[in-house]
Amino acid sequence: MPAAHDASQDQASDDDVLVPIPPDHGEVEPAPEEVRANLYDFPKYYDLVFGSDWKAEYDFLLECFDKYRPGKVKTTFEPACGTGRLMVKLGKAGLAVAGNDLNEKAVAFCNERLKRHGLPETAVVGDMADFKLQKPVDACFNMINSFRHLGSEAEAQSHLNCVADALKPGGLYLLGLHLTPEDDDWEGEETWHARRGQLSIISDLRTTDFDRSKRMETLGMTFNITTPTRHFVMRDTMHYRTYTRKEMAELFSSVDRFEILETYDFCYDIEEPIIIDELTEDVVYVLRAK
Fold first, then answer.
1. Rounded CA gap, 266 and 143, in Å?
2. What is the pTM of this model?
3. What pLDDT sits at residue 225?
4. Which residues lie in coiled coils (predicted)?
5. Which residues are paired to 226 by β-bridges?
């Protein structure tokens, strides 16, 4: 595992690392301050929490572009781009990049990151379910679950239609999300520790409510944040629309704008596509615009 380097807290780093949570040696510390806040309004923290695995996704995107549209992907667009962790990498690789996001602070952070790397500031405030590009692109991507923020079938259909309209004929859309397995034992929980310089965040995400009939999962999120001058706990709640494999198939069929070329899991191994079954949870759909 690479060692963390010293980096300014105010800058996005390419060397974020996930580190093991250290053992408890029994030291007693004062209870940290607790705040209720939207993590999306703190792009520096969001970027560290969700940006540390960029390399696997970045490599996978390039491999998919080469495999499913060889030599033709020059322009890309990321709906719900957030802090632009993948946009900047693709831009540095020579691709034209752009994206949108509803959160103004995330868009400002993304554009500052692009500018710092000598790239055009091409992120805009916009809705992933209601946008139109001036020129179509070769590929779009939305890699981990942002799609599930869309709270209705109509919004999901609108999103897919917007993406299809944004793509050139035969263009690719890589869509990644967590599916709901078709059993009665669904329970989601993840804990990890990410660090950048002297900024440390221990993240805990767990399902607090799951309603199959309403197709809604509620996640409770806790972020234990330590900086050189402050130690506090941020709590937030996130709501995700749920999809089984059959519900995704029905959604794609209702829009009928894409062909499913292949499916992968979050191991991102281009040589190991998967067959989605009733227990599949993590999936990336490789779609081609009709």
1. 9
2. 0.88
3. 96
4. none
5. 200, 231
- Answer whether 264's CB lies under 8 Å from 272's CB: yes
Classify domain 31-39+182-241 at the CATH class level.
mainly beta
pLDDT > 60? residue 1: no
Predicted confidence at residue 11, as pLDDT, reads 44
- For 218-234, b/e burial (b = at least 16 CB within 10 A) is ebebebbbeeeeeeebb
CA–CA separation, 173 vs 141, rounded Å? 5
How many Å apart are CA 203 and CA 210, to the nearest integer? 20
CATH superfamily of 50-180+243-289: Vaccinia Virus protein VP39 (3.40.50.150)
The mean pLDDT of 139-146, rounded to a whole number, is 96
pLDDT band, residue 186 (cuts 50/70/90): low
- 3-class SS of residue 288: strand
Q: How far apart are CA 266 and CA 282, in angstroms?
A: 6
- pLDDT at position 53 is 80
Give yes or no for a contact between 1 and 19, defined as CB atoms under 8 angstroms apart. yes
Would you state the pLDDT for residue 188?
75
Strands 123-125 and 99-101: parallel
- Which residue ranges make up each domain of the chain? 31-39+182-241, 50-180+243-289
Quick one: pLDDT band at residue 20, thresholds 50, 70, 90? very low
